[in-house]
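Give me the 3D structure for LysR family transcriptional regulator.
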Amino acid sequence: MNSFDGIIEFVAVAESHGFSSAAKQLGCSTSHVSRQVSRLEERLGVALLARSTRQVNLTDAGQLYYQQCRGLVNGLQQASESLNTQQITLSGTLRVSAAGAFAEEHVAPALMAFAKSYPDLTIEMDFNSRMVNFIEDGIDFAIRYGALKDSGLVARKLVDRPMAAVASQDYLTRYGEPTHPSQLKQHSCIIANNDHWLFEKEGNTINTRVHGRWKSNNSNAVISACEEGLGIAYMPKSSLAKGLDSGSLVPILQDFWGKGNSSWIVYQNQRFLPVRARLAIDYLIHYFSDWDSLHK
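Predicted structure for LysR family transcriptional regulator (296 residues):
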């Protein structure tokens, strides 16, 4: 059976493109990973990895071997977890990166409910929109909104978040209510992430560039500025729910609201996720499973 030694380490190196990053994922030393892979190559009589001072790449033989081994390693881990998850007691620290009102008002309470079932589990939430290095920063998964650029990450859609345009009644009384997105050029708009707002009408996209005297990358600050009459806001409707329900925000341009983007759970590599992260992700997916029907 020792002919299988080193396969897990080899797959980790192949997927993380380095010995040190593979060691961090596996929770062992870099020297152990290097030694196990070298022994595997000796037994097979072929070089699986092309090593340099800057990076590690698969050889042609390594690529072929990786394709065969990847499914085997995943199957072994899934088999083990299927026996353990029913009686597992989660411990350690779950680290989550998130940002925005959706994460603060909805994801955090969901994770609090998850934590109640596991008294030995610690959860750390970092509310920061910066791009994280999952391995170096020790982040298990992140909650992100919008289009995802890094194709090397695994992403699972959490919810769709359609848009809504709003203003305070005071603002509309003073400056009038626009009836078409093109009229926003004559209005003060509260800018969050960008000054190009995408509206939709009968399947057609209307790209409108806006301007205003209040800009902020914090959704709560945008909402407060809108309630204070500083301009028109265009955000995911779920972020505006409290203001719409209370009447402090008035919906406008409803025939043109866009479909918006989605919020995602993003992580580095499915196979190296600790069980606590896997279960938390599955919990969040189930928790928000009826979100779209409740927040249209």
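The chain has three domains: 2-84, 92-161+262-294, 163-259. Let me know if you want a second pass.
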